[in-house]
């Protein structure tokens, strides 16, 4: 199950907080998915990828209640937590940078906190960087607005790379995928 976190509705389209939706949409485009159904407060599409069935999921509960859709879907389809990939925005990473983790804390992210509260804790995390607010901009305004033109291409590259990384992790497994797609540390 590949879950992209975001907020539904036109007013949030293209916002930084919808980074997860952007990656799921990119995967849907690559895999030629066009049939979505509404199920358990989410948009869900089923697709065969290399002989396996994958579910693409975009919760429609708003970011802070994402777990309300993800937990029930995971249980309905009998998907193990470690087979749930969650893609979401991260202000602590530069725009377009990706970091994959097998587990961890919620890192102050309300969408992830909601997943924890709804029985989904040990999932694979794909954190896509949106950078920190500039100047005096507050966090809420930062995450709920689109990127400035200066960052659009950088973010689009990050979305494409994150989609490629999801595919790679599906094929290689999490450990090998993390080795391949996480940023390399510079040696001193």
UniProtKB/TrEMBL annotation:
Molecular function via GO: peptidyl-tRNA hydrolase activity; tRNA binding
GO cellular component: cytoplasm
PROSITE patterns listed in its UniProt record: PEPT_TRNA_HYDROL_2
Domain of life the protein comes from: Bacteria
Coiled coil: none
SUPFAM superfamilies attached to this UniProt entry: Peptidyl-tRNA hydrolase-like
Subcellular localization(s) per the UniProt record: Cytoplasm
Residues binding tRNA: 12, 62, 64, 110
Pfam families: Pept_tRNA_hydro
Site feature (Stabilizes the basic form of H active site to accept a proton) residues: 89
Main location: cytoplasm
Catalytic activity as recorded in UniProt: an N-acyl-L-alpha-aminoacyl-tRNA + H2O = an N-acyl-L-amino acid + a tRNA + H(+)
Active site: 17
Record bears the keyword Hydrolase: yes
One BP annotation, GO: rescue of stalled ribosome
Site (Discriminates between blocked and unblocked aminoacyl-tRNA): 7
Keyword annotations from UniProtKB, A to Z: Cytoplasm, Hydrolase, RNA-binding, tRNA-binding
Record-listed E.C. numbers: 3.1.1.29
Binding partners and assembly: Monomer.
Family recorded in the similarity comment: Belongs to the PTH family.
Function: Catalyzes the release of premature peptidyl moieties from peptidyl-tRNA molecules trapped in stalled 50S ribosomal subunits, and thus maintains levels of free tRNAs and 50S ribosomes.
UniProt name for this protein: Peptidyl-tRNA hydrolase
Organism the protein comes from: Anaeroglobus geminatus F0357
């Amino acid at each position: 199950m590949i879950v992209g976190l975001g907020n539904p509705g036109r007013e949030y389209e293209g916002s930084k907080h919808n980074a997860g939706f952007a990656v799921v949409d990119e995967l849907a485009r690559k895999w030629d998915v066009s049939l979505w159904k509404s199920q358990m407060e989410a948009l869900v599409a089923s697709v065969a990828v290399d002989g396996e069935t994958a579910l693409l999921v975009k919760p429609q509960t708003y970011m802070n209640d994402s777990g309300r859709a993800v937990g029930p879907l995971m249980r309905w389809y009998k998907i193990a937590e470690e087979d749930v990939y969650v893609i979401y925005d991260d202000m602590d990473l530069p725009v377009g940078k990706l970091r994959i983790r097998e587990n961890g804390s919620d890192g102050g992210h309300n969408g992830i906190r909601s997943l924890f509260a709804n029985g989904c804790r040990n999932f694979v995390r794909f954190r896509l960087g949106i950078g920190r607010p500039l100047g005096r901009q507050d966090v809420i305004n930062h995450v709920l607005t689109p990127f400035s033109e200066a960052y659009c291409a950088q973010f689009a590259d990050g979305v494409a790379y994150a989609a490629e990384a999801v595919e790679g992790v599906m094929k290689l497994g999490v450990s090998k995928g993390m080795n391949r797609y996480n940023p390399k540390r510079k040696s001193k």
